[in-house]
Amino acid sequence: MFNTIVVGTDGSPHGQHAVAVAADLAAALQARVVLVHIEEPFPPPLASASGYVPYVPQTVIDEVEASTRQRVETEFCAPLRAASVAYETRILHGSPATKLRETATEVGADLIVVGTRALHALGELFLGSTSHALTLHAPVPVVVVPLTPAVKPKEHEQQEAALTV
Description:
This protein has seven helices and five strands. By secondary structure, the chain is α/β, with parallel strands linked by helices. The chain has a five-stranded parallel sheet with strand order 3-2-1-4-5, sandwiched between helices.
C-alpha cells in the first residue's frame, strides 16, 4: 500500500525525527523514501533603497550548494542509511508545503512524513506551518511527527515558552 514515502526535513531536531520515523516506516513496509530539503534562495533577494542588488560570485554560490548537498547526504540521510532503505534526495527552492506536495505527485508517493514544531495558534499565524498546510492540501495522507519528550531539545522548550508568554 505504501511504496513511496516523501519526507521533508530542514535538518532541525523536528525534521530529523521525521526522517527517523520515515526510515522506520520504510523499513517495515519495504518502501523507498524521497528525502526533500527545501533551501532558501541563495543569495537571498536583497535590494537597497536605490535598487542595488549585491553581487555574489558564482564560486561562492557553488560552494554553498556543495556544502548543503554534502550535509543532506551525510547528516540528514543518516537514519535512512542506518535502516538500510532505498532512498533518493532532492534539494529544492521554494515554499516547503508546495514543494513537498509537488514532489509527492511527481514521484507517485503514497505518504508524506513531516515533523512539527508544535507551535500554538499565535506562533503558527506568524511563522506559518508546513505540516498544517500539507494536512489541508496534500494529495496523499500526511503523517505529522511530534517530538517526544525524550527527543525534545532544550532550545525548543525555551522557544515554546517564549511563544506562550
